[in-house]
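This section describes the prediction task in plain terms. A model, or a person checking by hand, is given the sequence of a single protein chain and must write out its three-dimensional structure as a string of tokens. No templates, partner chains or ligands are provided. The sample shown here is typical of the held-out split.
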Amino acid sequence: MRTDGSRRARSSSELESSLHPAECSADEREQHEREEHRHDPSPPTEAWHDAGQKLAGRYERVFVAYADCGTGGALDVVLNDHHVERLPGAHCYGFLAGNDAWDAMHEDEPATFYLTDFLARHFEALVVRGLGLDRHPQLLPMMFGNYRRLVYLAQTDDAALDRRAEDAAAYLGLAYERRRTGYGDLRPSLERFVAEPTRA
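The expected answer:
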């Protein structure tokens, strides 16, 4: 674990150069743009219902590798209607870190901003441009001024992602910590699901 107590916020142009180095391919840049436009925080309940209807009768059981992830319980309503199970917990941070471990981590420091491998990879698209910080940098202290640290929940050992996560912490002016979590509760949840007998 590494902690960087520096509070110096980096400019959007500095972050752009660190997250999108010169050797970044055109395809990778295009992927960043696609991910930015795909990000929609509203729960797609109609799409979930449609998927449930299409799967009905085709399989004995269905498991959704997804936590509630900010749907406010809307996902569970749909899944219960279709008798589908999902990953335990309120969000990906919990099941990736392990829900008990995440609860303890959050209790230790509630003013924490979390990154996963996906968010570290797409931080510039989803956070910087997604929140308009590249166009309105004056919003940065308003949005992140009460945070104290950034914790990178690393699923893999990837030096490039480590640098992206640390650059993100520097951009936000937060202390930096890296915690190697692997995939947390994902594997045991799937193993339990597979081992359970089929319900009548």
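For orientation: Residues 12-21+93-180 form one domain.
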